[in-house]
Every structure is written in C-alpha cells, then in structure tokens.
Amino acid sequence: MRRAWRVNALLAAAVAALGLFVFLKPRTDAPVEHALAAFKPEVARAIRLERPGATALVLEKRGEEWVLTAPVSARADPVRVQRLLAIAGATATSRLAATDLSRFELDRPAARLTIDSQSFDFGMVNPLSREQYVLTGGAVYTVAPGYDAALPRNPGDLIDKRLLRMSEVPVRVELGKFTVAREETRWVLRPPGGDLSQDDIQRWVDEWRHASALRVEAFAKGVPLGAVRMQFRDGTALSLGILAREPEVALLRPDEKLVYYLFKGSAQRLFSPPQGKP
User: What is the enclosing helix (H) or strand (E) of 82?
Assistant: First the structure.
C-alpha cells in the first residue's frame, strides 16, 4: 500500500514538472522579430536624407546637439531628429531576399536615409498588411507604416524653432526702454514699474528663454529696426536684431544668420515690461 502511494506521488510530481516545463518553454509559434540595425539610435553621429530630385539634408552631432549642416547651417529640432533615428530601433516581422526590388518599389526608392554608415531605402506600403518595405543591410524588411512620415521635405522642417539654445539662460535682457537684470540674488526691473514679485519677473524671463518661432528662415536682407541685447549665465552675450514688428515679429540671430518669426501675441508680452498676475 505504501509503495503504491509513493509511486502515485512520484507520478504526480512528474506530471507537475512536465506541466511547468511546458508552461515556461518559449513558444515556437511566436512571431520572429528582425532588427533592422545592429546599432542603437543613441550612438548615431551622422544623418543624411536623400530624395529624388531634391537637395540632400545632412546632419551631424556635435557634443549633445544635432546640427543641420546642409543645405543650410542651423540647430536641429531634437524631436524631429529622434523621429528620424527611430528606424534604427525598428523591428520587422518579415525579412525577404533583396531580389526583384521593383515589386516593392525599391528599385527607385522614394527616400534614402543614411545613419552613420547604414542606409535605409523606403519603398511601397503593402495595401493588405499596411506594412512598408524597407531595404537595408542587403535584405528587405516589412515595418509598421509611419517611419517615412517622419522624413522631412525641406530644411525648415528640421530647424529648431526655439529662439535660444538650452544652454543660453538669460541673466540680463535689454529692450531699449527698460532692462531686466539679475543683480546678486534678485531680479530687478529698471526703471521700476508696478508691484512686481520675483515670480512675476522670472515668468517673463522664462518666456524669453523658451520662446519658439512659428517658422525660421535664412536671413536674406534687411536692416534691423532695433535690438534686444541679452547676457547669459555662462558669460556669453547675444544681440537679436528686430527686423519687423508687423504683421509678425521677426528677430534676427546674426550668429546663425537665421530669422525667427514669432506669433504677434507672444511677442507683445516679450517686448512689454513684466506684469503682475491680474
């Protein structure tokens, strides 16, 4: 009797172990994911985008900042750059031989994106699976649609619309009729005006620090009507030329040879002395 009990216990343990093995065993029917790139997007240092009949867009990473180097020189929008790099982190459910490329519209790709030394050619979107064909590394991959939508059409789409760099933290702003400056540990408005708190002045300075343009264009011609002079926390300085006040406010950064067009409502607050909360 005792022997039969021991046999049953051993059988039960074996069944339990077998069940656990089956539960933990990797599924062989799970979809296989193929990585398109052997590197991670964050290590990239150079980007080139080519379209048929269009001038190539070229970017390079300098320190922690991406810079557009051709066809114009400008700071690059970090969000748009990350969207470009996303293809390097993509995975595909299918990997096909790179033969008869015309059936994928990859014999004449709509765009070629090169990240460091690896190129990604973008072909058609499969009307049934809604996946896009991408040629890279000697094979054709099917990826989720949308990566091609991140590819800009012109340099303006890549230019950083922020007026100031992240490192440019104002400690003094001069606008002709008034000046806001950090003196020792306090913000000071000269000439004084209204009942202002330190928070009121800080909000105004932060508006300058985070000001963003509607669009940015290369400077062609024009004589500034005035200037906005700034000093920054790191000891550097900048003088912005006021090219226009109507119908948009246009500010020239002479160091970049770019004109930033600001929304009139936002610009009016920037060009007016700090105000207290209503």
Answer: helix 78-85
